[in-house]
Amino acid sequence: MSTLAKSININTETQQYRKLLIDYQQPDLKRSIWQIINSFIPYLALLAAMYFSLNVSYWLTLILAIPAAGFMVRIFIISHDCGHGSFFKSKPVRDIVGFITGVIAFVPYKHWRHSHAIHHATNANLDRRGFGDVWTLTVNEYLALSFWRRLEYRLYRNPFIMFTVGPLYHFLIAQRFPEKGAKKKERNSVYLTNLSLAGIVILSSIIIGLKAYLIIQLSVLFFASLGGVWLFYVQHQFEDVYWERDESWDFQAAAIQGSSYYKLPVLLQWFSGNIGYHHIHHLNPRIPNYYLKQCHQLLIRYVEIEPITIRKSFNSLKCRLWDEKNEKMVGFGYLKQLAVT
Asked: Where are the domains of the chain?
């Protein structure tokens, strides 16, 4: 276990501070409503602009898709917060808003909420991987695989697939089917979301035509899903990330060291709903996104948090396997060094 993880376990001040985060888990109705307004209206306006731009240039349409994708990510964060019970005090309101924003983001709200809750409960636990996370193997597990399973893992971890084809497949296709063993309400969430999306496609086809709808929606979804997957990847896949076996796993250490502080420029931080403060979000997922920055500023009084900048975040692409012996993420090139030694 790393020095930071040990200090987190025994630092009583940090334990006390974690309790203080409870003060920030009460949503502010005005701020929540304002976030809905300043996310939905620009998003819909950009979709309209993309439609009219089709008569000018497809390149202009593609350029407009980038900020529209930013607003789609921001709308997904609203659904995400509703799923954690952090955006509104009222559960019926959270479920309604969560469902609507989920449909816009192509995510079945209750089904995703269930799998994401498992992710939070098992984050950085080596013995409880495989649900709602990035497929991650240890060095020894990878070496024990057959040739074809190694190839499958390498393809999954290939940056081109993971950040181009992979995100679009995940949101456009994989989210259309419930997980094996999903409960009735999660399955119904998938089916109702699919039905709603089908209705949007039909209505849009009548109003603007199927071709125009597909060009606009797929362009936005491509950039939004790429951004979303990249954020999730960087938040949990970096060299000094925390991973532990079940018997040694600690929730607080997993939150603070097993989730990154992704230091983004102000504009990107706004579009991503402050999700770069992911260590705070995992420490207490009931905190609304608009309070995460304040909580981070309080936490750094007790624990030193090393930020990951945009430049440093690209080093995460080298992280492919977990080396249990040295307690760090390594690339496939490490296997060659291992073979030599």
From this structure: 3-340
Write out the DSSP string of 258-316: SS-EE---HHHHHHTTTTTBHHHHHH-TTS-GGGHHHHHHHHTTTS---EE-HHHHGGG
pTM: 0.91
pLDDT bracket for residue 7 (50, 70, 90): very low
| Helix, strand or coil, per DSSP, at residue 125 | strand
Q: What share of the chain is helix, strand, coil (3-state, %, to 5)?
A: 70, 5, 25
* Stretch 79-96: mean pLDDT: 96
Q: Are 33 and 97 in contact (CB under 8 A)?
A: no
Question: What is the token pair recorded at 91?
Answer: 């559960």
pLDDT per position as a tens digit, 17-31: 567 788 898 999 999
**Strand boundaries in the chain, DSSP class E:** 137-138, 261-262, 307-308, 321-323, 328-330
Closest by Cα among 341, 307, 301, 317 to 18: 301
Cα 55 from Cα 131, distance rounded (Å): 44
The overall average pLDDT reported for the chain is 92
Q: Given pLDDT bands bounded at 50, 70 and 90, which one contains residue 8? A: very low
Q: Is the pLDDT of residue 130 over 80?
A: yes
Question: What's residue 221's pLDDT?
Answer: 97
For residues 199 and 282, what is the distance between their CA atoms, to the nearest angstrom?
A: 35
**How do 328-330 and 261-262 pair as beta strands?**
unpaired
Residues contacting residue 41 through CB under 8 Å, at least 6 positions apart: none
What's the CA dihedral at 185, 186, 192, 193 to 10 degrees? 150
Rounded to whole angstroms, the Cα distance separating 320 from 339 reads: 17
Residue whose C-alpha is closest to residue 153's, from 287, 279, 335, 5: 335
pLDDT at 302: 83
Q: Which two tokens stand for residue 217?
A: 């929606």
